[in-house]
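DUF4169 domain-containing protein (Mesorhizobium album), 50 aa
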Amino acid sequence: MARAPNYGQERKERERQKAAKKAEKLAAKTAAKKHSTSESKTDAGMKTAQ
């Protein structure tokens, strides 16, 4: 006889994976934004120095 499914545990696992994926995307977005702002500041500094 098969075991009864544990829907609560399965849902928690899906939500945990979804939260991890969301956090990873947010971290990548933050890093990209930080990189682009520092890059634009560097470009602006080079333009004024010339």
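The mean pLDDT is 85. The first helix runs from residue 7 to 49. ok done for today
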